[in-house]
């Protein structure tokens, strides 16, 4: 919870929409170290957060409207940061990584895929020195690895690991993506876009087919 | 007390007559009428772009009518206008209040508006002479939070408020032209008809009302038992109403969904309905068959708002993690 110790506010289901905003505001007020929010007002907010059945028509009390007028936004920045961190922790399970992991051999490769925590996404870049695009993709993945600590980025040298037998230079660089027990062909463009891909020119170096988007209609 | 009893009986009588009239209009169910239509199949939308720049949860977003630009409002106290193709930020507008519940893009593309717990609707001119975006008007009169706003033109905007009313404003003068009163609970959302003659408001009094903008009157009321949170956006359940038959057609629900809907976006053809829920998921419904045909899923996708562009080519979602994503 964003709030400290005792000031817990049961979130109920109101995360989104106008009720979500009201809910966020109430949590902020309860958590606020602002002296302008005395105990009795905090008590009111707590009560409003657990409405009785006959109260469902109106979402905010008159006193709460008055509290907004006296707002001090100094604590808001701190509160927002806390909320983001808390959400990240709550929703990103499993181990964290901070760089692209170099796999030395075929055994390493299998081990990583089989052993990683079931919720961790594993991305392996098969590269070969001298093959166009591999170096670019490696730099790109270095950046992404920092930005997405919940994803395990790895790379393996096709020649050094013997993978070159299976992966001829024409298909490199190749990105393999693994999640839980399902192997699925990487849909590179869509996937990397979900992560907010950096320079798009890196993508054109990849040997993957790009997915055609269908109309929403 | 005799008179009260009589009036109560009369009211009940009228209610029964309405129910009977509606039943008489119901010559078939949507399921039967749609039975011969082909199934739409699994719908899989993919993220095409990610818009990064906000520093906190996205509360609302709205597409411009050009289907290229869109505006988003966030807890970080900013309104950002994006070019969804290049992902560039066209404008970043600082707001006085961070508790913003809604934002809107004028059909002309000249103005944007937003409002929230400050009880005001602030209008910004994007095409000012010196290039700076400034507050053009602050429409203040509501005594409750501003839950939604939608432009009719550069000179008129409609707002819905937690004070149980909706208002049509004259932006030039900053005055209220028409007050649409009648709801018994907080108005949570509104949607304007494509011909700009009507709008529908949804409120916490369990009803949705169809209003005639020029007459200022309520033409129809829908609902009754469920809490209507967002227009067309219904808490707990998603329902489709037929305006002409004046009744509920179908409910979109699934036993695995345990929370309310807070945002809705129909596809251009109306065949698909994207519904955003309180638990941050988005379900895609086949409107005719009432079946779930897809979900918007991403690795960390937690959707707080959703919008489909006017040309129907893309959908935009805003998330708790400060990113907006463009899907198709």
Automatic annotation (TrEMBL), chain A:
PANTHER family: PHOSDUCIN, PHOSDUCIN-LIKE PROTEIN. It comes from the Eukaryota. It comes from Gouania willdenowi. The keyword Phosphoprotein applies. Coiled coil: none annotated. Belongs to the phosducin family. Residues 6-203 form the Phosducin domain. Pfam families: Phosducin. The keyword Phosphoprotein applies. This is Phosducin. GO terms for cellular component: cytosol; nucleus; photoreceptor inner segment; photoreceptor outer segment. Its main location: other. Keywords: Cell projection, Cilium, Cytoplasm, Nucleus, Phosphoprotein, Sensory transduction, Vision. It is found in: Cell projection, Cilium, Photoreceptor outer segment; Cytoplasm, Cytosol; Nucleus; Photoreceptor inner segment. One of its GO terms (biological process) is regulation of G protein-coupled receptor signaling pathway.
Automatic annotation (TrEMBL), chain B:
PANTHER family: GUANINE NUCLEOTIDE-BINDING PROTEIN BETA G PROTEIN BETA. Residues 4-31 form a coiled coil. The keyword Repeat applies. WD repeats lie at residues 51-92, 139-179, 180-221, 296-328. One of its GO terms (biological process) is signal transduction. This is Guanine nucleotide-binding protein G(I)/G(S)/G(T) subunit beta-3-like. The keyword Repeat applies. SMART domains: WD40. The gene is gnb3a. Belongs to the WD repeat G protein beta family. Keywords: Coiled coil, Repeat, Transducer, WD repeat.
